[in-house]
Design a protein that fits this description.
Elements (H helix, E strand, L loop, with lengths): L9 H30 L12 H14 L2 H19 L12 H4 L6 H16 L1
Helix pairs in contact: 1-2
């Protein structure tokens, strides 16, 4: 409701979301992604792989993937889910973001399909 007091400050929320979002990325992809792109990437030919230029391109790709525009997508998705969960009392699922379009039909096959698509998209990329 509009009269509810937040349990955490904006800074605390930002810190928690940032930590949760980047935690696994730093753990695994901080090393794996630049190495992967150093060995082969779409911007240089196979003959130029594993060169100084390949290393520079690999770092550019990694920074592009982990830069501000990616976090913007995470933030928009999170804000949509948070709004419908805390202001409208809907579940914290992707189907809730479709509520303005489909209304209560999100509790049927349309909502199930949206949630399944989100799960498969997350698992299989």
């Amino acid at each position: 409701e509009n009269t509810d007091k937040p349990e955490f400050s904006n800074f605390a929320w930002f810190s928690m979301l940032f930590g949760a979002g980047i935690g696994i990325g730093i753990l695994f992809w901080s090393i794996a992604e630049p190495i992967y792109h150093f060995q082969s990437n779409p911007f240089i030919g196979k003959d130029e792989a594993m060169t100084v230029e390949a290393a520079q391109v690999a770092m550019r790709i990694s920074i592009f993937h982990w830069g501000l525009h990616g976090w913007g997508l995470f933030a928009v998705t999170g804000l949509i889910l948070a709004y419908f969960a805390y202001r409208k009392g809907l579940p914290i699922t992707i189907r809730s973001s479709l509520y303005p379009i489909f209304g209560d039909r999100i509790y049927g096959p349309i909502g199930h399909a949206a949630d399944l698509l989100a799960v498969f998209g997350t698992v299989f990329g």
